[in-house]
Amino acid sequence: MAARVPTQEEMKELQRRRQALLREDEDLFSSAPESSPSVMPKRSDKQMNLYLLDPAEPQIEYFEDDHCALRAFQGVIANKLQDREKLSNLFTAWSSIPKYNGAALAGKSQSVGEPLPILTHRFIHDGDEFVMKLTPAQIQEVVDGKEESVFYYPGITEEYLELSLVKMAMERAELFEPHRKGDGYAYGATFSLSGIRNFMSAQKKGRTYPEIVKSLDILNKCNLEVIINGESTASAPILPEKLSHTQNGYKNADPSSRWSCRFHPLISTSINNRNYRQYNITRLMDTKTRAALSLSKMLLTQARNLSSEHPFRIFYTDFVKHCGELNYTRRSDGIRKFIRTAESLKKFGTLSEVRVKKIFGSRSNRVVDVELELFGSDGLIKEIKAGHVKERVVLEQYEIERKRLEKQESEATKQKKARSK
User: Among residues 130, 153, 129, 149, which one has the least CA distance to residue 139?
Assistant: First the structure.
């Protein structure tokens, strides 16, 4: 089944939009260092390829009509398949939820025998009031020779695993029936344990097969409810469905056998609504602490206008309030670690400069807070701009497809009325 080819009229409209994009982002790659991955075709006219680059083995059967959301999700702004290796998508609202910071927010990450409480945390994102209710996972494990119920909040290993699963879905996705009638399709990933392990090892986040299986269990048994502005938006395990190799019909526990999982409803909603951003996954996988990972996510999702003149600004107290990390008894210790965390992102090539503005108490010379100005590296700024381009291309194609479907539905209604006369 072949994907639908745009009409000549649609091509003219896309070409017009292409020129508008180039005028708005004419400096997108003008100063890229030679080592930077190119996302522009090598043409004298500098025309940008407006169509997104599909995976090596595109799932053509899913690219028709309602399934075009998957093609938009999997496509990237890149010249060749090799450029896809470090590119993935980050879901803006989903990434803002500190679901993997339970140890910092609750003071502990696991408990043997005694249940952990449901973790409730309030925060503001993009002007909306969010409430996160995180129910810990309960897993049976052998502890000191005795089988016990062990309770877990998901942590940094589970977060790296989720990032890896989303990347796997960029290459090979799994479609599930909608969560509710009328919703778009639910999405997930199909993968092998060896594939996940090899990918994480390549990002220097190697885990053993038992550790990966345990993290999958934690994600499958940990429930996340999100309430936005007083209304419950979604409540489900982080991975609502997890099908092992045996459930998928494989007889042996071969690491290369296929597993599959379904993502949380908020992720599927984001894919259907095109609410995500292209980014370089190494920006997150290179981090070594929960604080650095949390700060990097905030930078990638909130610093939309980052440039050499416009830094991303963040206060230590706001950072702690949002994710709970670096909340030390002595605030001076937390502030020092906060600055050190930001400085560590320079080593990964994410930031070029960190400026510190100290905030003093009204009645003393003691530092009570700091505001950091984070300046992105040339590479990060270009990646963010490429993310802008994909976002615009995806939304423009979505609008064209929406109008086409509306016209198709209108014509079908007219024909139905004509037949009834």
Answer: 149
